[in-house]
Amino acid sequence: MSSNTNHDWQSNRRSRTANIIPMRFDAAYYYERGLRFLERNDLKRALKAFRKTVEYEPDNPVNHCNLAGVLSELGNFEASNEVLLHVLKNLDPGMAECQFYLANNYANMGEYELAEDHVLRYLDAEPDGEYADDAEEMLDVLLDEFGGGKVYARWEAERREEEQNLAKQDGRHLLELGQFEAAVEQLEALAKRDPENTAARNNLSLAYYYTGQCEVAISTTERVLTEQPDNIHALCNLTVFTAQVGPREQFLACVERLSKLFPLHYDHAMKVGTTLGLAGEHAHAYFVFDRLVRMVDRPEPILLHSLAASAANAGRVQTARKWWKLLQQLPDMADVADYYLKLLDTNANNGQRVRVSYQYDMPLRAQFAEMKRRLQTGDLSSWRHDPLLRASLYWGLRHGAPETRKAVIRTLALLSDEDGQKALRVFLKRPDTDSSLRAAALFALQRTGLRGRVDLWQNGELTSIRMSDVPKDIILQVDPVWPLVVDRANAWLREHHKTQYAGEVKRLWIEFLQAGYLTDNIRVVKPDIWAAALVYWTQKHRQTGVRQRDIADWFKVPTSSLSKAAARLEGVKEKGSS
After folding, report:
1. Which domain holds residue 493?
2. What is the per-residue pLDDT across 529-551, written as a single tens digit (0 to 9) for each?
3. HSE-up of residue 250 (Cα within 13 Å, Cβ side)
4. Do 546 and 430 reside in the same domain of the chain?
5. Terminal Cα-to-Cα distance of the chain (whole angstroms)
6. What is the pLDDT of residue 279?
């Protein structure tokens, strides 16, 4: 070969080499290659490609997850778990999808408790995440078909404990339990001990409001807003307070500020919308809820109801109907949605606009229509555990008419819990508490079993007495007519030389009053009828030979009225002996 020929060959080779594009073997190349192999279901070659991505970018958690996914597809669950646990431990502890992948692997391995643990971890970290629906379905299968639930029970307990601990830090737990008097006491101490705890001060203002101390509630909230003008909770609280008690100018200023807000935090946005609704600004409330529902993947029942309620209250009936029908499809919400849909139809037929609560339980007024029935049957479970109803009771105790206050006192006597005792003790210190209401409150405390001393306003000053010194017949002082019954019965006993029965007559009357007062089942219009009935009952059961007609004639009352009253007394004795 001549030198010229060799030169030409080398020159041509250099020319060909210059035209070749060098290949870049990096993580992106092998990632694309791995995807192509996956599409062809060539798992072994896909595995090889994704191993290369890890080699090129060992600190990229996504590469490791892809590798773990292929290992899982190949049935090598243990190796897949090793990769996923490496990601969580060394690369990205917050990569929640690894928890879901681990749950899948453990489920396939028959390790159902570990699967339950990891699926709960995923749902805890990403309740609205990409795999949330699949995770919830997996959890249902684990619980229903594989005898799970132990891990879930522990998880729930831990969640409740964590929530309770957080709530105790700002006193919220007492508000949630409806123990408003206790909340005032604890939150005042907490706010004094930690003035920087704004959440506690906001909750204290709510506790003041729920116990009827509106002016103090407003001033407490105003102090928070002076320090933090953008505090949403304080602004919402002040809006609700001023909506109830004014001044009107301050309320309108609060509404104007709220209507311009849309917090990105879900709970804050819900509070703003609900507050606007409670303040009667239903169109503004609808705007907030409508915007919020577009931002979440799966609206909660309370959001759907609030959206429907604001639409209905704003006169947008068909829109309200649409949202309640959507609520109707959610688990355990059919009855609630049906109630409001029927309410829409009823009001439409009557030509009236519907007004509904932003809480999706039964409207408060409908629940209070049951007050007398519950007092008579002792069905007080909802009052015992419902903060809204409890707040209404305390409000009535502070601001209601005398008959309303007596009704509340009766209810608190039946509830017989510590917070009710606190409310009654505070009530007794008020200078405007008359003697009959004071007696009712003392009887209620007596009935709850309170011991020790209690302060009360009496004879123009605050005094202290022992509960053991409260007369056993304090119930007689609740109504000025009730002692007259005993006096009239004693008059008959004296005239007929039968005073040995005076103690029995009084005991029977007190027993009747105690039972009837608690169930709001006493109407004493004519004392002589009841006095005659007491005399007749005692003489009949002592077989003294005194005739009913003679007793009726002496008291100048109809025999039929005496007989009915005596039957009521008999009913009390029968219940007491059963």
Report:
1. 479-577
2. 999 999 999 888 888 888 889 99
3. 17
4. no
5. 129
6. 85
How many structural domains does the chain have? 4
Does residue 517 share a domain with residue 471?
no
Residue 366, domain member (yes or no): no
Q: Letter for the amino acid at 338? A: D
- Are 137 and 272 within one domain? no
Which uninterrupted H or E stretch holds 129?
A: none
Instruction: Tell me the CATH number at 97.
Output: 1.25.40.10
Q: Write out the two tokens for 315.
A: 């006169």
Coil, helix or strand for 461?
strand
Alpha carbon separation from 495 to 301, 491, 539 (Å, rounded): 71, 6, 14
Say if residue 461 is in the same domain as residue 569.
no
* pLDDT (tens digit per residue) in 486-531: 999 999 999 999 889 999 989 999 988 888 887 766 777 788 999 9
Which residue among 315, 334, 349 closes a domain? Answer: 349
Q: What's the pTM value of the predicted model, to 2 decimals?
A: 0.43
Which residue matches tokens 């190796």? 79
CB–CB of 443/478 below 8 Å?
A: yes
Same domain flag for 153 and 41: yes
Q: What is the pLDDT of residues 408-459, one digit of tens each?
A: 888 888 888 888 888 898 888 887 778 888 998 999 998 888 888 888 887 7
Helices 232-245, 248-259: inter-axial angle, 10-degree rounding: 140
Same domain, 337 and 253: yes
Q: What angle do CA 139, 140, 141 make, to 5 degrees?
A: 90
pLDDT digits (tens, 9 = 90+) for 325-366: 998 888 767 767 887 888 888 877 666 777 777 765 443 334
By C-alpha distance, which of 404, 400, 390, 476 is closest to 440? Answer: 476
Asked whether the beta carbons of 397 and 405 are under 8 A apart, the reply is yes
Give the model confidence (pLDDT) of 129-186 as tens digits: 788 878 878 877 776 666 555 666 666 566 656 555 554 555 666 776 567 777 888 8
Taken in order 469, 473, 479, 484, the sign of the CA dihedral is negative
**Which residue shows structure tokens 């519907």?**
354
Query: How many whole angstroms separate alpha carbon 138 and alpha carbon 155?
Result: 16
Structure tokens at 470: 């409260």
DSSP state letters, 227-283: H-TT-HHHHHHHHHHHHHH--HHHHHHHHHHHHT---SSHHHHHHHHHHHHHTT-HH
Q: Are residues 517 and 451 in the same domain?
A: no
